[in-house]
Structure formats: C-alpha cells, structure tokens
Amino acid sequence: MATPTLQVALDLLELDRAVEIADEAVRGGADWIEVGTPLIKSEGMQAVRTLRERFPGHEIVADMKIADTGAVEVEMAAKSGAGVVCILADADDAVIVEAVRSARKYGVRLMADLINVADPVSRSRELAALGVDYINAHVGIDQQMIGRSSLDLLRRLAGEVGVPIAVAGGLDAETASEAVAAGASVVIVGGNIVKAADVTGAARRVREAIDRPEIRPREEESRDAAIRRLFEAVSAPNVTDAMHRKGSMAGVVSICGRVKAVGPAVTVRTLAGDWAKPVEAIDVAAPGDVLVVRNEGRTDVAPWGELATHSAKNRGVAGIVIDGAVRDVDDIREMKFPVFATATVPNAGDPKGLGEINTEIVCCGQEVRPGDWIVADESGVVVVPRERAYEVARRAMEVRKNEERIREEIRRGRTLSEVSELLKWEKRH
C-alpha cells in the first residue's frame, strides 16, 4: 500500500451510536470502518449491512474473530457487505483453509488476528502460506492493561511476513505514527477515536500522524511513575468502576473539598486518639505517599490536626486518610491539603505511643496494606491492591475515555438512558 490505511474500530454495543461515530471518524480521515466484535455480537449482521449502506465508498471490516465454520461465517459477512473479514490466527488450519476458499469465492479478503498466539512469527508465515491476506498484530484490551504492547508485537513481525501487516491495540496518534514507521500498512484505532468527545478531531490527529510517520525517542518511565501519572488523570469513581465497583471506603469525606491525593499507602493503627504513631509515620513516609490511619476505640478525640498536617505537607506527603476524627479544620482548609476523615472534633488525644506503623489495617471498611495505592478526591477514597495498581490505572483511564464520549452525546441532547439503551440491556430474569 502506498499510503497507510486508517481503520476505525467500532467496539460498541449500540448500532445507532456506531453509525454516528463512524460518520464523524470518516470526516476526520478514517478509511476503513470496522464493525467490532461487540457490535456484531450485539446487533448481528445487521450492523454490517447498515454500515455498508451508510458508507458505500469505504471498506467495511467485519471483526468476526472466526474460530470455527470458516466458510459459513465468511459467507455471512461477505453477503452482508464486508470487504474484509477477520479470523483468529490460532484457529485450526482446516478452518483457515475453508475461510480462504470462501473469501475467494465471494471476493473478500481475510485478516488473521494474532491475539493470544504463542509464536506469532511462525504462525504468521503459516497463515500467509495458507492464503490469508493480512496479518493483524493485535494485543487485546486485557493484555494491554497489564502492560503488553502491540508495537512490540509489530516489531517482531516486521520483515518476517510476506503479506501486509495491520496493527491494533491501544494505539493513539503518537503510537500509530510509530507503527507505520515500523512497517504497518493498516493502523487500527478504537478507543482513542470512538471514545473521544471530538471523534472527528481525534481521527484527524491519527490521520495526520500516520501520514507523517516517525519514531520518536521515548523517555523511560518507571512502573510506579506510570501508575501515578494515570491515577492523577482519573477520578476516584473512575477507579472503583475499573475495579467492578470495589475498593471504595465508606463514610470518609474530604475536609478541604476539591483536593486530590494519589500515592502508595503508609498504614497506621492507633488507639483512642493517640496521635504518636500517626505523627511518627510522617517521618517514615516518602514524598508522594499517603498516610492511612485507623483510629480504634474512642471517636470523640482526634489523632490528627493542623500541626501534623503542616509537618506532612513539608515532608511531601500526598495526603492523609483517617478512619476517625480530625481537628483544626479551619487551619487545614487554609492549607488546602488533602485530608480525608470520618468526623471532626476539637478534642485531641495524648501521645502515648500505642499502635503500629506499616501493618495491615482495615480503614473505613477496606483492607489496606503498606504499598497499596490510594486514590482520593471529593467523591471519596479508593484502595487499589498494589499488585493490580498498573492494570487498574490503565482500566480507569479507559473508563474516563468512555465517559467523555457519553458526556458529549448527553450534551447534544440525548439522555443517559437513551445513550446506554438501558431497557434493552436490563438483566433478564
């Protein structure tokens, strides 16, 4: 191909939304329109027919992810108007051969999706020999969330396969440009176009990037730095949504209103307002950590106040979460420092030294271990297990992007019920 092809993946559930978004993407420069697997499962071949009719001048790609009955499923898609049909690369050779025969019969092309293939280079050579037209270097969404990269897969294939290579999986304008520079003929972009409030603008940015491909030197980013960057860009509700509505503390509120705290937890267990261990924990914490305090026993005394807050701020602590009371609220609010607590009282306890630092605690109904990540804002506090922090941060960003498009559609006059097709998707009993 002389110029790179931009394929927009409509991984949606609602056909009317898919048509609207496809129209905006085409105005931004998209060449091929992919009827994504979720859309096919939701709407069937009618989705392919509708998009074929609506966009007669554009190639329609049916992402069937065929695993069996290759001839039948290719025929279904071809007769519905698809020009390219997707099959799983790890399907049995017999399935591939029948799919190729059907594709030749009906004048369509076959794209093999390498998702989950153990030896992608060898399998791609086999697929090319069997007659597949395109190889798709695809890393699925769940694999992306744990850090796997479609660009890495593409680079393994470059120069090794005699058919055009497509690439898919979390691409944006910058990585799409790198993909073309690395040898991709077809660049497939989903969420970073279809979830944007301005779909046309997002598609145009990708179009411009792949028309001028380049590989830019990247600064290495540590895993912890990436986690912090992502969590700082999303909200606490985004995070709990990404965890299937889990991780949220109960009864804790922001003392200073619209502030945010993100960081690994330094945990503290104290008794009856004893403020010794919470204050000592300030010296244990590293810059960017969040102190999480469980105050056991009496709740009419506060283990935290203005002087401790000032000390924590000087230390670079990112925030404080207290399952208990805080005092000196007026002074703390002047500092605009992220303090979250379940109550406010004027009384302070005494520094007796009871309790522990960096032990497992239960804070506002959630288990918190040292090093677990805390995301706190005006909506509340969410605890993310440290071993899942990168994955959850990536998923939370996807939640945020999805909400951006829904928010735009509501701004245009639709209701949330209409956008989500709630009646259609209510659980059947």
TrEMBL record:
GO annotation, biological process: 'de novo' pyrimidine nucleobase biosynthetic process; L-ascorbic acid catabolic process
Highest taxon of the lineage: Archaea
Domain Orotidine 5'-phosphate decarboxylase per the UniProt entry, residue ranges: 5-206
Chemical reaction(s) catalysed: D-ribulose 5-phosphate + formaldehyde = D-arabino-hex-3-ulose 6-phosphate
Key words of the record: Carbohydrate metabolism, Lyase
GO molecular function: 3-dehydro-L-gulonate-6-phosphate decarboxylase activity; hexulose-6-phosphate synthase activity; orotidine-5'-phosphate decarboxylase activity
Pfam families tied to this protein: OMPdecase, RraA-like
Record EC number: 4.1.2.43
Classification via SUPFAM superfamilies: Ribulose-phoshate binding barrel (SSF51366), RraA-like (SSF89562)
Family classification: Belongs to the HPS/KGPDC family. HPS subfamily.
Protein name: 3-hexulose-6-phosphate synthase
Native organism: Methanoculleus submarinus
Taxonomic path: Archaea, Methanobacteriati, Methanobacteriota, Stenosarchaea group, Methanomicrobia
